[in-house]
Specification:
With 467 residues, the chain is of the alpha+beta class. Helices cover 42% and strands 15% of the residues. The longest helix is centred in the C-terminal third of the chain and has 21 residues.
């Protein structure tokens, strides 16, 4: 969860900016301005090089997208190593220059990847230069990215919208990074004086017009009257307000950052709460609960068993009851003369055998053998060009691990599995049995948990003969 303190446009996260660079095109509301004149902001490689000078407490990096012309860079500040500069550039929308604590600079830089966000505001609302999106919450496992949920009818607030005759640049302040100490948000009226001084500094430079310098956004979903406090949030979530407060206090449940926090009172937009509820419903634990249905009404959700394990538990309960009670010879073991270590060990071994036999029965070995066969054949086909050149085809770690696990679980099925792989590889893929054998041997030794000696011995009895 992101941790936020009070900010003017919403919030200021303790892992997010502590100040604006004086040459930024997009000031972060109510953060002070710091002189960035010693940073080569026009050249991302120079920014990276600045942080990679000799010394163990500095670092720098730059990355670009050649297809769009966008880039991002960061560097430890050379004059004050407690801080780092993070820059994000868009060819049509200019440059964002922000100062972070040094230990947060790398993470802030990494946030640029994927979504190419040029800026973030109001507890996670973000802008890619074209569209404003709600905070990233709902994960799409097919793409391994968060869903992009556009803000409906957003209004962009620019520097030109905030500047008027009441803003006095001579009252504005610009800090030096050497003496800079992060503090509470700058009061709104003072920040507008600071903004006027920032605008004055831009007057003789070839930069974006003030009408293009985005500061923050507004939207119907962010209207004051529509925001949800803790009590309203809890009602939407179907939980007690005390539970939600406990989540906040203990930093639990991946709660989204609030959009506004005044005097300790947190408020969220309704769509942000809705997205959180959607992601909460999609939690993997809930998938187990859906499959379990009504069978787990009394089961602790934190220890929820999968349906397969529940069936195995029921099966073992019945089998063990039969072993322990229904057989008269075994029932006598509960008599006092039989309560000794030897008797207990015998009973434990018997119960262990019952559990092992029944656990094996719960594994669909026939179906798994087919799946592993298809996995191996697919990888052999994908890399079949290596059969002639190398005489061996490398399989992925996951396939090797699964193959080794299966052979440990069902060694009697190994001959049939190996035979099917060799047959299909030869008939369909035209890959010789020798290549298949070398590939499987290598996979089992690297990823399947088998030593060379064990592989040699196993293949001698389980792998089809070549002649």
């Amino acid at each position: 969860m992101q941790h936020w303190d009070r900010g003017v446009d919403g919030m200021t996260w303790n892992g997010e900016p502590v100040a604006n660079g004086l040459r930024t095109d997009h000031p972060w509301p109510n953060l002070p301005f710091v002189d960035d004149g010693h940073i080569p902001i026009e050249d991302p490689e120079a920014v990276e090089g600045l942080g990679r000078r000799a010394g163990g407490d500095m670092w720098g990096r730059c990355d670009d997208d050649e297809t769009t012309g966008e880039w991002a860079a960061y560097t430890t500040d050379p004059k004050n190593h407690d801080f780092a500069w993070v820059l994000r550039f868009h060819p049509d929308h200019g440059l964002s220059v922000l100062l972070y604590r040094d230990d947060a600079g790398s993470g802030a830089h990494d946030e640029w990847f994927g979504d190419r966000a040029l800026m973030t505001r109001l507890g996670g609302y973000w802008w890619d230069g074209t569209t404003w999106y709600r905070p990233r919450q709902v994960l799409n496992w097919a793409t391994e990215t968060y869903m992009r949920r556009p803000v409906q009818r957003p209004t962009v607030i620019t520097a030109a919208d905030l500047l008027d005759d009441s803003c006095r640049p001579e009252r504005g302040t610009v800090s030096k990074v050497v003496q800079f100490t992060p503090g509470p948000p700058v009061p709104p009226q003072q920040w507008r004086h600071d903004l006027a001084r920032w605008a004055q500094h831009r007057a003789d430079r070839d930069v974006l017009a003030l009408e293009q310098c985005v500061v923050t956004l507004n939207a119907p979903e962010l209207a004051e009257a529509g925001l949800l406090g803790v009590e309203e949030f809890a009602v939407e979530a179907g939980i007690a307000a005390s539970t939600l407060r406990a989540y906040i206090a203990r930093d639990e449940a991946d709660l989204p950052a609030p959009q506004v926090s005044d005097g300790g009172r947190k408020r969220w937009s309704r769509p942000v709460v809705t997205d959180w509820l959607e992601q909460r419903r999609r939690d993997p634990q809930n998938a187990a609960a859906v499959l379990a249905g009504d069978d787990v009404a009394t089961e602790d959700a934190a220890g929820l068993m999968s349906p397969a394990l529940r069936r195995l538990r029921t099966r073992l309960t019945d089998m063990l009851l039969r072993e322990l009670w229904e057989k008269p010879a075994v029932r006598r073991r509960w008599a006092r003369p039989f309560r000794n270590e030897t008797a207990a060990k015998d009973l434990a071994e018997q119960l262990g055998w019952v559990a092992a036999v029944n656990a094996d029965a719960a594994i669909p070995t026939t179906d798994l053998a087919w799946m592993i066969q298809q996995s191996v054949l697919w990888e052999l086909q994908r890399n079949s060009h290596l059969a002639t050149a190398m005489g061996v085809i490398s399989l992925t770690r996951q396939t090797g691990h699964s193959l080794g696990w299966f052979l440990e679980q069902a060694p009697k099925r190994a001959s049939a599995l190996f035979g099917a792989i060799v047959r299909d590889a030869g008939n369909t893929l035209k890959i010789p049995a020798e290549v298949v054998e070398k590939s499987l041997r290598k996979s089992l030794m690297l990823d399947g948990g088998m030593s060379k000696q064990r592989v040699d011995e196993f293949f001698a009895v389980a792998f089809p003969p070549h002649k």
